[in-house]
Design brief:
about 55 residues; mainly alpha; single chain
């Protein structure tokens, strides 16, 4: 009985630790590579039928 509870506790702790490590690395990655809100790269460019960008 004690062996089963110990294995359950170790497995649960390992899983929770793994989730915490993955969550923190994912959060750091998204904060690091986030684009600014008013970026010129996000603007849509309209193209004419011959494939050239149209000026507004």
């Amino acid at each position: 009985m004690a062996d089963g509870m110990l294995m359950y506790a170790i497995t649960t702790a390992a899983f929770i630790g793994f989730v915490i490590i993955l969550g923190s690395s994912r959060g750091k990655r998204y904060r690091h590579h986030s684009a600014p809100v008013a970026s010129s790269e996000n603007k849509k460019v309209k193209y004419s039928s011959d494939g050239k960008p149209m000026s507004d």
